[in-house]
């Protein structure tokens, strides 16, 4: 039966539409593309995490009131002495003896040095023969003495732990006049001042060893040095250990800038290292000589922290952003995922939808780019630099699409893709404070942590977590923590220092 003409026309039109739709889709629809992951073995910028050099600087402050207490406990309160010596040009067979009692010793911190003073009072017994030209008058009397002794100190801790006091003594003798009856008075202050002054200076100079043996800086720093050796598990999933090995001791000049205290800062320089298996304990070195510094030093901890790719991808996959090419084309980027590439690069998989541009069709699907992770120091975010299409992606794209994405997507990723790391900073801030403040300190020492600042300073890729470990590519964040770790000696313990 012959088909109606209308049916034939409609059928013919429908058949003609099918290839037109196929051709139109191929020419006008988006270019669907799915690129395989880049080939090759993941090789980090470094094989294992780098050891970081850190300084733990402990400022040991001693209140001026404690110095006064130590000095008054150690320096004798009474001075007695005698000397056979003519105390005047007209006196023959002269001799004198003194008996002096001191008052309280008081220190002051003047900003650049320590000064101390001690009042004293007593008598000097004087004897001899006074030649009055006409006759010789025997002398046997007493002289009232009074004045102030003291001096200035510019103490410096030497490399061998001895303290050079740089003591400059002083003596002010207010009165020392001998009454000779009808012959008047004889001023013997210069003579007694010289003899008594030398004696007092010798006795008062015992202040320095008294302070040294009581405060015992070497003993306390030895404990700090021993505690700086650390091998501790910081994570159990994945298992991670941190190993700290002290290397040098540094000492800053003694600080007299505060009126209520004198302080010295001792810093332990150590190597910090991460490993994914329990490390072999480091061989402990004896307490070394200290390296004197010309200026102040502070705590500067640089700690490597391994960031797993799973953690990073949890953050990346939740982010999305758009790029406007300025050519009538918008590119929407989402579903990011990262893996360690080669030579310090991360390979980034991303889903995109690029509208049709004046130069060709749009592109939709997933592609791969690569870029180096970098830390933005100002806003503390993770970003990428040196972004480029992978070889596999470039081979899949037409020339126009590759040009479009290479020119605009790359710039968009470098300017738009940011991972906020402040959550890591906050957690690390708390952990650093807890670790330092919770340190096991000797009795009689109070510790405080001030002006702690935690910053991210570097990021790099690694092939494995330790030299002995298997290949396990990841990322290392370097955390820098700076601050003021102050200890304050608040307790007097008079004891002999038997250590060399």
Describe the fold and architecture:
This protein folds into 2 domains: 31-64 and 216-500, no CATH class; 76-205. The strands form 5 sheets. Strands 2, 13, 14, 15, 16, 17, 24 and 25 form an 8-stranded mixed beta sheet that branches. Strands 1, 18, 19, 20, 21, 22 and 23 form a 7-stranded mixed beta sheet that branches. Strands 3, 4, 5, 6, 7 and 10 form a 6-stranded antiparallel beta sheet that branches. The protein contains 9 helices and 25 strands. It is an alpha+beta fold. The longest helix is centred in the first third of the chain and has 24 residues, at 5-28.
Q: In angstroms, what is the radius of gyration?
A: 41 Å
Q: Indicate the percent of residues in helices.
A: 10-25%
User: Helix- and strand-based class?
Assistant: alpha+beta
The percent range for strand residues is: over 45%
Total discrete domains: 2
Regions with little confidence, pLDDT below 50 for 5+ residues: 1-27, 491-500
Give a quick account of the main beta sheet: strands, pairing sense, barrel closure.
Answer: 8 strands, mixed
Q: Span between N and C termini?
A: 124 Å
SS element count, helices: 9
Q: How would you sum up the global shape?
A: rod-shaped
Give the overall pLDDT as a whole number: 75
**Tally of DSSP β-strands:** 25
